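Hey, sorry to bother you again with one of my protein questions. A protein chain has come my way and I'm curious about its shape. It would help a lot if you went through both lines with me. I owe you a coffee for this, so here goes:
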Amino acid sequence: MSIRKSLAALVAGTIVALSAGAIAKAAEEVNVYSYRQPALIKPLFDKFTAESGIKVNVLFAKKGLAERLQAEGMNSPADLIFTTDIGRLTDVKNAGLTQAITNQVLSANVPAKYRDPEGHWFGLTTRTRAIFASKDRVKPSEITTYEALADPKWQGRICIRSGAHPYNVALIASMIARHGEVAAEEWLRGFKANLARKPQGNDRAQVKAVYAGECDIALANSYYFGKMLAKDDQKAWANSVNIIFGAQASYGAHMNLSGMAMAAHSPNEANAIKLMEFLVSDEAQSIYAEQNYEYPVKPGVAWSPLLESWGRFKQDDMPLQAIAENRAKALKLVQKVRFDDGPES
């Protein structure tokens, strides 16, 4: 594929080429297809290039990368796929777009629960699905578990984005894996009955709604707390809530991750492996996690001061593979209970 044709295809597919260099097959390059925002990964890639001499070319897209990989087939220049959420990682694996790799560094630095048992994907950073409760209207001790989201005491008091969003599907899948499908359905129906409004918006919009008094409790990924605190026009939203890590007296807070996978037809495998190894090093883990307000996947790497200020917490030890295996059931439950219709009037 020529550089001109490649760029034309990117424009047609609403994919933005972030690297100054176009995607190409070269001995000292590595090509990344990424669903992660450019600002989140560029500092790491610049550091890797400075240390290794290997240039990193990046294609960023909000959607459509999997379809592009399928269309390119064996001619794809992609070496690595970067994405968020266990669902998106398993989707590219199940579509046959990744390949299994065996690597001692990756296996040593990434805990088993945060990597594919067959070696198709590896976690880079983790985040928790946190409960955000109004400082004025909810005592932190009043809600401490995900199961409590279905308690009738919260009727009309909870805000959340679409139940079909991958972040929520993962949480529901974890409830299925832990409690069984019947109990998870009962919980989801109770949860729906407690919604203050029809699910809408993104994670930050839920915390904003708590600030505005539309609800008292919201569910959002932990890193959004940091993102809101970093923006002058959103600080007030973040300062209006307490971040609560779920299930601390039992199994621990629900975890998800961002991760990477080797593309099925990688033309620069050796360079791709070098980049993967770099990204799970102490240095890169620290930079990546601090940049994204996330937690390092490698044990022992220091948390950023901001994350430390939120407090240490017990993390759920459930392998993410168990969550991946229950995603389809979780999505069916969302549809079955008509979760996104919101509370019944």
Notes: Residues 129-254+314-341 form a domain with the D-Maltodextrin-Binding Protein; domain 2 fold (CATH 3.40.190.10). The radius of gyration is 20 Å. The longest strand covers residues 121-134.
